[in-house]
Specification:
globular; alpha/beta; seven-stranded mixed β-sheet; about 20% helix; three-stranded antiparallel β-sheet
Length: about 240
């Protein structure tokens, strides 16, 4: 355990991902960490309650990393959205894939660079990517501050994300965000721990021209690993 900067604590762990060598990952100590003295996160629509979520390892992120470990490395352009600590991106980056990580949290870039360094990797491309209802602060004021990181641009052949269906999205902002950055012929992976928002997302992705295949990922507790319930949603557009 260590203090990485005034105001929050971190830990460093060796994380096992099936199919590849273990990764050293620096993360927040727990979900109670918070440090936003200049309101950088708040002004991007990130409340104190959601501030630490980027800096934790989540079960769905582990499932996505395992899938990336099995993905053949080609010249395809890969984008991880809502990357948090970017475990899946780090797996792909270490294997030599052409991957860009993106998130909306002001500290995500720094944590990604540090975790790349811990594993002897060069920094990978990182971009600011935001969708959804993050348009008002806790105090009701509009979001006024722009992110310090460069905005996401370009088109990608494979877009991946874990636990990104965390809010009701009747307007289809996530599907629109994906469509804006997906190549004409592209594939989308979403690992969803049964958040209950799949139906609307399916509808909006279909409107964007994607067909969907759904795979149940339920797993009972075994060999010390916790049980998991969720699905892998694969969308393709040709």
């Amino acid at each position: 355990m260590q203090t990485s900067s005034p105001g929050y604590l971190t830990k460093q762990e060796s994380i096992a991902v099936a199919g590849v060598d273990d990764l050293l990952i620096r993360s927040l100590l727990d979900k109670h960490q918070f440090y936003d003295p200049l309101d950088e996160a708040l002004n991007l629509g990130i409340s104190s309650a959601t501030w630490p979520l980027f800096g934790l390892l989540w079960p769905s992120g582990m499932r996505l990393a395992e899938r990336m470990a099995r993905r053949p490395v080609t010249g395809e352009r890969i984008l991880e959205i809502g990357c948090g600590l970017g475990l899946a991106s780090l797996v792909a980056h270490r294997r030599g894939a052409q991957v860009t990580a993106s998130d909306c949290h002001p500290l995500a870039h720094a944590f990604l660079d540090e975790n790349s360094r811990l594993n002897g990797l060069l920094p990978m491309p990182y971009r600011h990517g935001l969708w959804g209802t993050a348009a008002a602060r806790d105090d009701g004021l509009p979001v006024l501050t722009h992110a310090q990181d460069a905005p996401l641009c370009g088109l990608f052949d494979l877009i991946v994300g874990s636990d990104i269906l965390y809010e009701r999205d009747d307007a289809g902002t996530l599907a629109r965000f994906i469509d804006e950055h997906a190549a004409v012929h592209s594939e989308i992976w979403v690992i969803d721990p049964n958040r209950g928002n799949r139906a609307a997302f399916h509808k909006h992705m279909a409107q964007a021209g994607f067909t969907m295949y759904e795979q149940v990922l339920d797993q009972a507790t075994h060999d010390g690993a916790e049980a998991y319930k969720g699905r892998m949603l694969t969308y393709t557009r040709h």
